[in-house]
Amino acid sequence: MDNEFQPEAKKRTFLGLLLAVLLLFTFLAAYLLLFARDPLAPISRNVMLVITVAILVFAVLFLFVLFMAILSIMQNRTFPGLGWLTGKTLYFLYPLVVHSGRMLHIAQESIQHSFIAVNNRLVVNRSLRSAAKEVLLLLPHCLQHDLCDYKITRDPHNCRRCGKCQVPEILDLAGEKGLAMEIVTGGTLARQAVEKHRPRAIIAVACERDLSSGILDSFPLPVYGVVNERPEGPCFNTRVNMSVLQETLDSILKK
Ligand code: SF4
Predict the structure, then answer these.
(1) Nearest protein Cα to ligand 1, atom 2
(2) In total, how many domains does the chain have?
């Protein structure tokens, strides 16, 4: 599954930037190695050697993990024992990739979108098919219509099904599949929902920024991200592509 449900997703943006960053570190280490060999250098040769070797070791390790992640994505499989290491490395290097993209004038949202696509593929490749009761569906509060008077963050079933927003459709889908669903206003409520349900996997709908930070915060708990639609701008009467959501549930839930 290639974040197929969001065909615009471009995994290459994140992976390409990550590769560029790691190659840069490798070249930097090689440069330092040459510099450290100069006996007239003002900095201690030994100190330079230690720094260089440390950078080289990490750069090579990260390049290996990146290679395995790309192989995993291309072959739709995961490698025993490497799932955790791959996730940890990608999430650890994520801030570096975002900063590098910023320097290259690549929109942060596009990098985040790409990161979510990479994450989704890795989550699915880990064959984490879960029973519905082990999965939590997390939705953003902005899916609720702006003029709605009913408080659905405490209990989504407070929705009166007036038809102004998609909440009833999503409630029906969650009910049909038998999974817990929470509507949250931000990270704090999302964390409380996770504490409350203790899921084995999360399917989260949100914007690129919230999904990226949620994926990073929740690691190693797998989070499958579905990017929302924002026809009226951010955080206002947002929507979710129901067929994408349906297919995501089908791919994550046990038959
Ligand atoms: S469908 Fe439910 S949540 Fe949406 S506006 Fe109507 S009552 Fe509010």
Answers:
(1) 159
(2) 2
Find the domain containing 106 and state its range: 11-125
Q: Which of 159, 170, 236 to probe ligand 1 with, by most ligand atoms within 8 A of CB? A: 159
Based on the domain organization, do 196 and 246 belong to the same domain? Answer: yes
* Alpha carbon 246 to chain centroid, angstroms: 19
- The domain boundary, picked from 92, 125, 158, lies at 125
Predicted pLDDT of residue 8: 42
What residues contact 112, with CB distance under 8 A and at least 6 apart?
Answer: 98, 208, 209, 211, 212
Q: Confirm or reject: Cβ of 167 under 6 Å from ligand 1.
A: yes
Same domain, 80 and 16: yes
Residue 253 beta carbon below 6 angstroms from any ligand 1 atom: no
Tell which atom from ligand 1 comes closest to the C-alpha of 168: 1
Q: Are residues 201 and 245 in the same domain?
A: yes
93 lines ligand 1 (CB under 6 A): no
Quote the pLDDT of residue 88: 86
Which of the pair, 24 or 2, is modelled with greater confidence?
A: 24
Answer whether 181 contacts ligand 1 (Cβ < 6 A). Answer: no
Average pLDDT over residues 218-239: 94
Supply the residue whose CA is at minimum distance from atom 8 of ligand 1.
148
| Same structural domain, 169 and 219 | yes
Question: pLDDT, tens digit, for every residue of 96-144?
Answer: 999 999 999 999 999 999 999 999 988 888 766 778 889 999 999 999 9
